[in-house]
Amino acid sequence: MSRIPKYPVTAAKENRPGISNNRIISRTIGNGLSDVEKKNLLLNHTKPMNGTASNKVAAPRIKRSATAPSSATVPTKAAKVEKKTTTVAARIPSYDYKARFNDLVEKHKVIKSELSELKEKHLEISDEYEKVKDTVESSASERDALKEKLLNTYTELRKHSTDLESLKLDFELLKRENDDLHGKTRLLEDVTKSLKIKTSEYDKLKTEFDDLTRRYKSLSEEAEALRVLTDHLKKVSAEYDTLQINHKDALDTISKTKSDSEALQNILANMYKEQRMLRNTVQDLKGNIRVYCRVRPPLESESSKPLYNLNVLDACSMEVEKIELLNSARKGKSQHSFSFDGIFTPHASQEDVFAEVSPMVQSALDGYNVCIFAYGQTGSGKTYTMEGGNGAEKYGIIPRAIDMIFDCMVDLKRMGWELSIKASFLEIYNEIIYDLLNSSKDQESHEIKMVNSKCSDLYVSNLKEEEVKSSHDFIRLLIFAQRNRQTAATLNNERSSRSHSVAQIKISAINEKRKEKFTSNLNLVDLAGSESGKTTQRMDETKHINRSLSELSKVILSLQTNQSHIPYRNSKLTHLLMPSLGGNSKTLMLVNINQFDESFNETLNSLRFATKVNSCRTIKAKKNITMVDS
Ligand SMILES: Nc1ncnc2c1ncn2[C@@H]1O[C@H](COP(=O)(O)OP(=O)(O)OP(=O)(O)O)[C@@H](O)[C@H]1O
User: Fold this and answer.
1) Which of 296, 494, 545 to mutate to test the pocket of ligand 1 (most atoms within 8 A of CB)?
2) Kinesin motor domain: which residues (predicted)?
3) Which residues contact 201 (CB under 8 A, 6 or more apart)?
4) Annotated binding residue 376
5) What is the ipTM of this complex?
6) Phi, psi (rounded to 5 degrees) for 278
7) How far apart are CA 67 and CA 89, in angstroms?
8) Is 388 one of the annotated binding-site residues?
9) Taking the alpha carbons of 448, 451, 452, 453 in that order, is the dihedral positive or negative?
10) What is the pTM of this model?
11) Is 497 in the pocket of ligand 1 (CB under 6 A)?
């Protein structure tokens, strides 16, 4: 507790403890304290002075700095008085009573004035005291009221405190509950999460389960099937055991059969060779140029045309007879007999014709050069005989020959022969060769040349040659060639009738086992119409046709009379057919005729030409077989 500064001795002599102090306190603290502090201070100092220090309410601390001015003020005044007295007193010697008296008087005066001053002050303070007393009294009642209020407030506070405590407890409880709930919520969230995971896992498992169920079902079915199979297998196994025993026996038989088969194959090959030789001997005996006559039936559109008499005497002889009208120049009966290697009546089918022709195709497969040609006037059925009509039944010699070649190829393969077939198609029109597999208008020129100086084989230069792997391949080429010929025919009026068409099939064969190989040519020729033309253009064509046909007859005649020189090179046709007509080849001519009265003379010409050809004897044909160079 700060000490209140002491008053000068004079002030203490007033013997007013507390009042003066109070006055000073109220004066000094009035400046730096708050209202509450002032009040507290007032309360403390208005309390009875007999109270012990411990009973006193602690007064607020008064800062030394705050009190300083008042404490300083009082000592300053006293110091002044002190100073005056000391100034006067100090100089008075003790023996100077007068001075001392004066001094005392002076002092008395000062003290007196001070006393009066103090009295005034006392009065002032008394007034103030009264006022303060009043204030203290009112403050006391106020304090009591406040005390009561405080008490009430305290009671209320205590009540509130209790409430607060219970509220705190409640809060605590609620907090705990809340925490509990939070925990539960978290737990619930965790449970929900894990539930979700479990649900998806469940879904997955369910799908898997369904899948497994399905698989189980199918596996069950498979198991059932397997069970059936197992039963079957058991049976089969038993059968297999039996079969194995049989198989062993069979193997023995097979190895035995194999050696037998090899022996038989050798026998077969030898027999085939012999058969081939016999076949060709028979053909040689029959002659290497063979002539057949085919009479075509009248078409529906020609049913009204008058016919001459045709009497087929036997398989090889026939008679043609025409009764000339009475007013005709050559009136009377005109009858002519002919005999050939065979005669095909109007009823003969394509199959019948091919049955006679097929040995020639067989000869080509045996390694001989073969030429089959159709001769006759326009419209006599040459193209029908060689190429045929639509439908397998109407197929002519060319498609049937290629079918036969590919059929025989299978048997030949069994005997160790590997065959390769090449085809080319050409046309000779006005002594010019045209490649029917080349559709371009500007073709390179084609010449007939020797394969080599040693042999008599010929080939046509710049001629397209296509390899054929099946009869279908060949037919495709034949159709292409026919179209090319037709296109040329439309550009060149009736050209197809006025040109020679040649289909060439080249057979190359090799037998590695027997070290044999051969190459043979099968020429299938549809000759131009043999009748004489009537128009100027036709005259020109006819000249060429007649020339080539007459050259053909000359060649045949030369061959017939064993001439040393055969004029093959006089025409493109005879030159091309040279290997087939003379020497090393077999030739078959089909002379085609119709039965119309109007064509009687042309028919006679054709039959006479065919007879000439038939009487031809070529030298014995030679096989082209050579040994493979080892
Ligand atoms: N044996 C036959 N049976 C049925 N119809 C035939 C027979 N021979 C020929 N024909 C038919 O007679 C017609 C004339 O035949 P094709 O065209 O073959 O004669 P062509 O001698 O070739 O004539 P071109 O010299 O003008 O070529 C054709 O319609 C043909 O179908």
Assistant:
1) 296
2) 288-616
3) none
4) yes
5) 0.98
6) -60, -45
7) 33
8) no
9) negative
10) 0.59
11) yes
